[in-house]
């Protein structure tokens, strides 16, 4: 578990109180790199937070997103994933495994002016869809018998 002091510091800096729900969900999100859905987060934290409702989970996630502690990745309308990496970056979605990998921001050339004149772009995010090369270290290892 991430130190309570660190979580307290992050929440306090943004004017948020430390609640058990926020602390446990933040701890999970800061340790995972899997860009989980709300459903996957619920499965991961429900044992640590008995009685957690989906409504409370969504409230906590929305609060953390509003406070810029978490980011959202929209894969398709309605399919939101959560990301504790709030620095600017893009994503590669592995169509074989569904895994989402971070792609450094500077790998994609500046696209702020790409939509053309009259469009004032405030932010953007690029999702790449494909498969990992056979020899990629990021490819999940086959299960050993
Ligand atoms: Zn990411």
Describe the overall structure.
By secondary structure, the chain is α+β, with helices and mostly antiparallel strands. It has 2 domains: 4-83, Winged helix-like DNA-binding domain superfamily/Winged helix DNA-binding domain (Arc Repressor Mutant, subunit A), CATH 1.10.10; 89-130, Dna Ligase, domain 1. Helices cover 30% and strands 18% of the residues. The protein has 4 helices and 5 strands. The strands form 2 sheets. The chain has a 3-stranded mixed β-sheet, with no helix packed on it. The protein has a two-stranded antiparallel sheet with strand order 1-2. A hairpin with a 5-residue loop joins strand 3 (89-94) and strand 4. The radius of gyration is 17 Å and the shape is globular. The mean pLDDT is 90. The structure holds zinc ion (ZN). Zinc ion binds at residues 35, 83, 85, 89, 91, 102.
Which molecules are bound in this entry? zinc ion
**The CATH class of the largest domain:** Mainly Alpha
Specify the CATH architecture of the largest domain: Orthogonal Bundle
| Poorly predicted runs | none
Q: How many β-strand runs?
A: 5
Largest sheet geometry = 3 strands, mixed
Q: Report the structural category.
A: alpha+beta
Give the CA-CA distance, first to last residue.
31 Å
Strand order of the largest sheet: 4-3-5
**Beta-strand level of the residues, as a percent range?**
15-25%
Assembly state of the chains shown: single chain
Cα-atom radius of gyration? 17 Å
How many DSSP helices?
4
CATH homology superfamily name of the largest domain: Winged helix-like DNA-binding domain superfamily/Winged helix DNA-binding domain
Annotated CATH topology of the largest domain: Arc Repressor Mutant, subunit A
Mean pLDDT: 90
């Amino acid at each position: 578990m991430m130190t309570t002091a660190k979580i307290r510091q992050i929440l306090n800096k943004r004017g948020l109180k430390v609640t058990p729900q926020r602390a446990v969900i933040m701890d999970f999100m800061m340790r995972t790199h899997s860009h989980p859905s709300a459903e996957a987060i619920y499965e991961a934290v429900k044992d640590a937070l008995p009685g957690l409702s989906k409504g409370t989970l969504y409230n906590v996630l929305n609060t953390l997103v509003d406070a810029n502690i978490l980011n959202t990745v929209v894969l398709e309308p309605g399919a939101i994933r959560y990301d504790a990496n709030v620095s600017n970056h893009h994503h590669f979605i592995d169509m074989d495994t569904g895994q989402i990998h971070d792609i450094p921001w500077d790998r994609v050339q500046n696209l702020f002016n790409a939509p053309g004149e009259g469009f004032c772009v405030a932010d953007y995010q690029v999702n790449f869809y494909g498969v990992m090369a056979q020899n990629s270290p990021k490819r999940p290892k086959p299960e050993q018998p």
